[in-house]
Every structure is written in structure tokens, then in C-alpha cells.
Write a structure and sequence with these properties.
- It contains ten helices and eleven strands.
- The protein is α+β, with helices and mostly antiparallel strands.
- It has three domains: 151 residues, Beta-Lactamase (2-Layer Sandwich); 87 residues, Signal transduction histidine kinase, dimerisation/phosphotransfer (DHp) domain (Helix Hairpins), CATH 1.10.287; 152 residues, Histidine kinase-like ATPase, C-terminal domain (Heat Shock Protein 90, 2-Layer Sandwich), CATH 3.30.565.10.
- Helix 1 runs antiparallel to helix 4, helix 7 packs parallel to helix 8 and helix 8 packs antiparallel against helix 10.
- The longest helix is centred in the N-terminal third of the chain and has 53 residues.
- The C terminus is likely disordered.
């Protein structure tokens, strides 16, 4: 089974991915910018050191060589831990190395013709930046000045910066995912409200509408579009209901007239046997049609009338007794036995007695129709934690599993073997409406060739008020 990820999770994932990509680009750019800045500062430092060294050589050109050497050593130690050198253009040292570090340093070779260079070298496995500059001292030859500065400090700063980025990455990613999910849930919360409301709207509550907040956004347009669609559906359904009610009402008169004429014709002495049989068939078919019209009128009234009723205390024992009295003659003709198990004490619920009797009669009528004689129907009434539980079990042909979800639909008939039994497919729809009116839950379990169990659970009168208005 393919499980789709919710929109809020997808938005959160996209938000996290985009944030991570932007953070990676920003962090990398900042790292290179920091590196460029640190390198620039190191170059500026070496440039200033070269300027000062050049000034020193120009200032003490007239001094003795010993003084010049001493001044150079003092300068090298004061400015760069002794990492400075002065070469002739042929690569020979113009002055002795000011320190052991300078003497052992891997200075780059003198390049003729180049005025100034800023290069990266390694000495004894450590990185350094080196600046070389060709200068001409007044009255003297050209010299090549060199100065070096270690890069280790810069690398430590860059490494610390990168470590900070790596540590902050998962923290910032989790924060971004959390914020993204919160924002997406806030943004999609109206959609959840619309979805919940849409699911609660049924064929009997088409007058309800979806919440449409004045936000002037896509959510408002979606709600308004759905409400407009509900307007059209409600209008169409109302026309169908009205047509069903009008047609059922208008057909009652002609059917009553046809039945009356047929019954009168049957009583005439000149009516022969063949005509008498034909008129009897007309009477039987008119009776079936009248029964179906009465069912249609009942459902039409159920659809049109508001769902409210004044219910009074009713003992389900009495309902079962009257329904069984109605069903016994029919069951006897089919060789079906009806057994009843009821508690001695009254089982009182709030309801309408004729409606509950009709509900039980519909269930018993179906059980008798689909149970071949000799057979048995069991009625069991008991109470469980403030609920009345009524079960009707038969030994009939059963209902196929794929048909169970549709048995309460109007005009639904199951497999052909069940369709051979007379009926109009409206009885269980009426039973479901009566159960809903009484706040009862009607359920059916069945196994083919074994039987069917209809179970009704409704609140006892002690748990309800004496007048229910829903």
C-alpha cells in the first residue's frame, strides 16, 4: 500500500533542504571570505615590514657594515622573529642572516625582473607567506628584500570557524525543521478545519457550509468554491426529494383506484376463473407498489423533516412482543420458529414505540424471508453498561462480505439469489433512519450459508433526558 507523505511534512522537508543548501552556500562563502581577509591582513603586514626595512637600509647606508648588520638583526627580531633576509640580485646574501630561523628557512629563489611577489611556501613542514621586493638604494646596487610570516594562526582561525559551522549545522537544521513544521501546520490548519467539516456533511445535512475566513487567500477561495458546489448539490438533491415525495403522493390515488376496480371486478358473479386470477394478480402487484410508495414517502419525509423528535420511555420487551405477534403468522407459513430471550425487568429506552416496532418488524421480515424452513430466528435482549443491546440472529442464506457495506443503501439488492425474494430494497434504509433518530447504532454481521446477526445498541432511558431534540 502506497502511503503518501502529508503536505505539511513535505513542506517541512523542502524548508529544511532549502535552509541547509542556503546555509551551506553561506557558510562556504563566509569561510572563503574569512580566508581572503586573513590572507590580505598577512600581506598588508609584510608590505609594511618591507617598507620599514627599505627605510632602514636607506637611512643607514652611510654607516659601517657592522652597524648595518646590527641594525638589520634588531629590525628582524623586532618585527618578525628574525624571519627577514637581504639578497643581491644574483641570489647571494647582501647581509648575514639575522637569526638561525632565517638561516634555515626555505626562502624562494630570487627571480630576476620581478619587483614584488607574495607567495606561499613551506619550511620544515609549516606553511608561511613570503613577500619579496626588489629595491634600489641611492648610490648602491639593487637588492632583493624578503620577509616571512607564519600562516599557522590563520589556519587555526579557519579551522575553528569551520568547526563552528559543522557543530551549528545539525542544531540549525533541527530548528529550521521545527519552525518549518510549525509554520506549515499553522498555514494548513484551515485546510484541516475544512476537511473535518466536509466529512461531517452528509446527505441529510447539506444545508451546512464550510468555514470561510476573510483572509483573501487561496484557502478562502477553496472554501468558497466548495460552498458553491454544496449549494448546487443541495439544490439538486432537494429537487430529487421533492420529485420523489410528489410522485409518491400523486401515485397513491391512481393505485388505490386500480385496486378498488380490480377488487370490485373480482366480486362480480360473471367474472370467470381466468379473469378472476388476472384481477388477483393486479391486486397483488398494486399492493406491492403501494407498499413501496409508502416506504418512499417515509424516506422523503425523513429527508425533508428536521432531525428532532419528542421521545418517551418505551419498554423494549413490549416492542419485541408486538413485533413478534406481527411476525408469527408469516414465520409459521415459512416453517420458521421465533425464540425470544428477554430479561424479566423492563428495558426502558427513550423512543417512539411505533417506529421501534417498525424497525424490529423490518429486521424480522428480512430474517423470515431469507431463512428456509424449517429454520429458527433468535431474539436476544440484554443490557450492558447503560446500553440496551438487541440482537436478531437467523439461519438464513447470509450476506456476501462485499455486500455488507451497502445493505443500508436505498434500493440496494444483494446477489441474485437474494433478489429472488420479494422486496423493494427500502426496508433497511428505513430501519437505519429509525435507529439514527433514536441515537442507536445498527450493525450487521453475516456469513454465507450460516446466517446473519443484526445488532442494535441504544442508550437506556436512565442515561438520557425524557425529551431529546437533536
Amino acid at each position: 500500500m502506497n502511503h503518501r507523505i502529508s503536505i505539511s511534512l513535505r513542506l517541512t522537508m523542502w524548508f529544511g533542504i532549502i535552509f541547509f543548501v542556503v546555509w551551506a552556500i553561506f557558510g562556504t562563502a563566509m569561510w572563503f571570505n574569512l580566508k581572503h581577509t586573513l590572507t590580505g591582513e598577512r600581506r598588508l603586514t609584510l608590505t609594511r615590514r618591507m617598507d620599514r626595512l627599505q627605510e632602514l637600509l636607506t637611512r643607514n647606508k652611510s654607516e659601517t657594515e657592522a652597524d648595518r648588520i646590527q641594525d638589520f638583526e634588531d629590525f628582524a627580531y623586532a618585527t618578525g622573529n628574525g624571519l627577514s633576509e637581504i639578497f643581491h640580485t644574483n641570489g647571494q646574501r647582501a647581509l648575514p642572516s639575522p637569526s638561525l630561523a632565517a638561516r634555515g628557512f626555505a626562502w624562494p629563489a630570487v627571480q630576476p625582473g620581478e619587483q614584488e611577489r607574495f607567495i606561499h611556501v613551506e619550511s620544515e613542514g609549516r606553511p608561511y607567506w613570503v613577500m619579496t621586493r626588489k629595491v634600489s638604494i641611492e648610490g648602491g646596487e639593487s637588492l632583493v628584500l624578503m620577509a616571512a610570516a607564519p600562516e599557522a594562526g590563520n589556519l587555526i582561525v579557519l579551522e575553528n570557524f569551520w568547526t563552528g559551522l559543522m557543530i551549528s549545522a545539525p542544531i540549525l537544521l533541527l530548528l529550521s525543521l521545527g519552525c518549518g513544521y510549525w509554520i506549515s501546520r499553522r498555514a494548513l490548519d484551515p485546510v484541516d478545519q475544512i476537511t473535518a467539516k466536509a466529512r461531517s456533511i452528509s446527505i441529510r445535512s447539506l444545508s451546512e457550509r464550510l468555514p470561510a475566513a476573510e483572509t483573501q487567500d487561496e484557502i478562502q477561495r477553496l472554501a468558497e468554491t466548495c460552498n458553491a458546489m454544496l449549494d448546487r448539490i443541495e439544490s439538486a438533491v432537494n429537487r430529487i426529494k421533492q420529485f420523489t415525495a410528489d410522485a409518491s403522493h400523486e401515485l397513491r390515488g391512481p393505485l388505490s383506484f386500480v385496486r378498488t376496480v380490480a377488487e370490485i371486478a373480482m366480486r362480480r358473479p360473471e367474472t370467470d376463473v381466468a379473469n378472476h386470477r388476472a384481477f388477483q394478480e393486479i391486486v397483488d402487484e398494486v399492493s406491492k407498489a403501494t407498499e413501496m410508495l409508502e416506504s418512499l414517502l417515509t424516506l422523503a419525509r425523513a429527508d425533508a423533516a428536521p432531525r428532532s423528535a419528542e421521545l418517551s420511555p418505551v419498554d423494549l420487551n413490549d416492542v419485541i412482543a408486538e413485533a413478534c405477534n406481527m411476525a408469527q403468522p408469516v414465520a409459521a407459513r415459512s416453517s420458521v420458529e421465533i425464540s425470544v430471550t428477554c430479561p424479566r425487568n423492563p428495558v426502558t429506552v427513550l423512543g417512539d414505540f411505533p417506529s421501534l416496532r417498525r424497525l424490529l418488524w423490518i429486521i424480522l421480515d428480512n430474517a423470515i424471508k431469507y431463512t428456509e424452513g424449517p429454520g429458527r430466528i433468535e431474539i436476544d435482549l440484554n443490557t450492558q453498561t447503560g446500553k440496551a443491546v438487541l440482537e436478531v440472529r437467523d439461519q438464513g442464506i447470509g450476506i456476501a462480505e462485499q455486500d455488507l457495506p451497502h445493505i443500508f443503501d436505498r434500493f440496494y439488492r444483494a446477489d441474485p439469489s437474494r433478489s429472488q425474494v420479494e422486496g423493494n430494497g427500502l426496508g433497511l434504509a428505513i430501519a437505519a433512519w429509525i435507529a439514527e433518530l433514536h441515537d442507536a447504532r445498527l450493525s450487521v454481521t453475516s456469513k454465507e450459508s450460516i446466517g446473519t446477526t443484526v445488532r442494535m445498541v441504544m442508550p437506556l432511558a436512565l442515561t438520557q433526558s425524557h425529551a431529546i431534540s437533536r
